[in-house]
Amino acid sequence: MSKRTFLPHGSSNITVDNDLITVDIAGPCNTEFFERMEEQITSLRPQLNMNNYTSLVILRNEALATPEAMAYFTNYLKAVQVRAVAINLQYADSPSITEDICKKAYTEACVKHRFFSDNVSASSWLRKCMATTK
Questions:
Q1: How far apart are the first and last CA of the chain?
Q2: Local mean pLDDT, 10-residue blocks, the chain (134 residues)
Q3: How far apart are CA 11 and CA 121, in angstroms?
Q4: pTM above 0.85, yes or no
Q5: In whole angstroms, how large is the CA radius of gyration of the chain?
């Protein structure tokens, strides 16, 4: 049986500023959404210092994903070499549930991460992570 492909559910706006990728996501999200997001972020690599970049993830609405989509996302996280990720839950409809799901993915992938309720403190933490050598 072949895998059925669906249209991506969820939307994202991705920007880069001085090796900080901001990914503004409105959910819910499916695997196809994460596949598209991976392609978009991969296309930004020439603009990044691949040895020292971070990401701010802003989650909006019901920013949840299916278990299959989260498994795909976790495997993606294992493959990237992001220095740190800050997750802003300020706009999430279910922040505590979303935090639990995200924490599982980032922890399993061994990605340094922290949760925030505003972009300013999240960005400040990310800049400090980039200033600190491994």
A1: 45
A2: 65 95 93 94 94 96 89 95 96 95 96 98 98 74
A3: 24
A4: yes
A5: 14
**Number of other CB atoms surrounding residue 58 within 10 Å:** 22
DSSP state of 4: P
pLDDT at residue 134, rounded to an integer: 52
> What type of residue is 105?
A
Residues in the chain: 134
Residues 6+ apart with CB under 8 A from 7: 32
Cα–Cα distances in Å, from 55 out to 24, 38, 48, 65, 109? Answer: 10, 13, 11, 19, 15
Q: How many degrees, rounded to 5, is the angle at CA 33 between CA 75 and CA 103?
A: 45
Q: Which pLDDT value is given to residue 1? A: 46
CA angle 43, 48, 51 (to 5 degrees): 120
Can you tell me the distance from the alpha carbon of 69 to that of 32, in angstroms, rounded to the nearest whole number?
Answer: 8
Q: Could you tell me if 77 and 112 are in contact, meaning their C-beta atoms sit under 8 angstroms apart?
A: no
